[in-house]
Amino acid sequence: MVTFARNEIVSSSQFVRSFATFLQRMTKSNGEKIVVVKNNQMQAVMIPIDEYERLKSLDEENERKEIFHTIQARKNTSQSEYVSFDDAMKTAGL
């Protein structure tokens, strides 16, 4: 679970009133995040663009690894387990 420091949590109304200040904080920070809370519920997290790009890159790399592992697993599938396209479409009702 992610933890947040007290100065990283702001109400949605405070966020709207001081958006420029929070945006400036993001551009100058190194990994700082801001959590927007509405009705005592966390609604969003604002992070610097560099951190977003890093996380997006990690997500994409993870997806590529999953695809690679799926392909590797399918290489070991015997031909007797294959399903034709037509049979798959019939099973799907298409």
Describe the protein.
There is one protein chain. With 94 residues, the protein is an alpha+beta fold. The protein is 53% helix and 15% strand. The protein is built from 4 helices and 3 strands. The chain has helices at 12-17, 19-28, 49-75, 85-91; strands at 9-11, 34-38, 41-46. Strands 1-2-3 form a 3-stranded mixed beta sheet. A hairpin with a 2-residue loop joins strand 2 (34-38) and strand 3 (41-46). It is elongated, with a radius of gyration of 23 Å. The model has no long low-confidence stretch (mean pLDDT 90).
Structure characteristics:
3 strands; alpha+beta; 15% strand; 53% helix; 94 residues
Q: Which stretches are poorly predicted, pLDDT < 50 over at least 5 residues?
A: none
Strand order of the largest sheet: 1-2-3
What percent of residues adopt helix (DSSP H or I)?
A: 40-55%
**Number of E-type strands:** 3
Biggest sheet, open or closed, and with what strands and sense? 3 strands, mixed
Cα-to-Cα separation, first versus last residue: 43 Å
Morphology? elongated
- Rg (C-alpha, Å): 23 Å
The ordered H/E elements are EHHEEHH
Instruction: State the helix count.
Output: 4
Reconstruct the topology from this structure.
Blueprint: E1 9-11, H1 12-17, H2 19-28, E2 34-38, E3 41-46, H3 49-75, H4 85-91
Parallel strand pairs: 1-2
Antiparallel strand pairs: 2-3
Provide a quick synopsis of the model:
The protein is of the alpha+beta class and 94 residues long. The chain is built from four helices and three strands; from the N terminus they run βααββαα. The protein has helices spanning 12-17, 19-28, 49-75, 85-91, and strands at residues 9-11, 34-38, 41-46.
